[in-house]
Model the fold of this input.
Amino acid sequence: MARTRPVLADTDPVGCGPLCEAGPLDEPEAVAVAARLRALGDPVRLRLVALLLAADGREACTCDLAPDVGLSEPTVSHHLKQLLEVGLVSKERRGANVYYRPEPEALRAVGRVLAVGG
Done:
């Protein structure tokens, strides 16, 4: 049986809940969310965001994240740079370490587009 896709609208004719409530995306919003989805399409980057969300104080440095994903610090830095460029994380240098934090509003924007009411 084919699944129908929810329609973005002011009403909720197909029971899509929050997706419909979010309303249509304008072009700049769609471009921003699409870039974020592309960045999250990499399994390592998706894991890094999940690790940041679960970290104490919702922040971590590359030296803490690298062992968790089994990659070198430079490789983790590369992935975090991709997330930074689309606004999914922010960073702060503290001495020799760079700490990253998830950006809640950017993650919520992605979530609003993907949320489907149950």
